[in-house]
Write the C-alpha cells for this entry.
Amino acid sequence: MVERLPAFTSNRTTRLVKSPKLYWTDPGLEAFLAGYYDRDSLPKGREAGAFFESLILHYLKVLAQLLTPHGLLFYWRTTTGHEVDFVLEQGRRLLSFEVKLISSPRFGDADGLRLFLSENQAVGGVLLHGGQEIKRLDEHIVALPWTMLTG
C-alpha cells in the first residue's frame, strides 16, 4: 500500500542511513482515504499537490523501467529544507524532476532544481506542471506539461 522512495546523496553509503519518503501506491485510494469522494472537490483540496506528486511518481517509475539499464528513483532534500521531488539515476547520469500543480510555471518554481544542478553533476532538470506550456526556465531546466509523460 505504501512505497518507500530513498533519499539521493552522491555518497551511495549515506543513502542507506537517510530516511526514505513514503508514497501511497495508489493515488486514487490516497485521495479517497483523505476524504475526497468526488472529482469536483479534489482540485480545491489542500492535499491536491501531494496527490499529483504521487501520480507523477508512478509515471516516472514506468519511465525508469523502460530505460536500458533500468533507472533508479530518489528524492533529494538538503539540511536547510531545499528539495527536488524526484531524481532519476541511470548509471552515472542524473535527471532531476520538480512537480508543481500549477498552470503557468515561473522562474522561481525551479529554485530547488537550480540548487540540485549546482551541487550535482546532472544532465538537467524538468519541472512537470499541470498546464499546457513548454517553457525554458534556465539553461538546463525546462518546464513541461505532465501530460507529456503519458504519451
Summary: The beta strands are 2-5, 21-24, 72-77, 83-90, 93-100, 124-129, 135-138, 141-145.
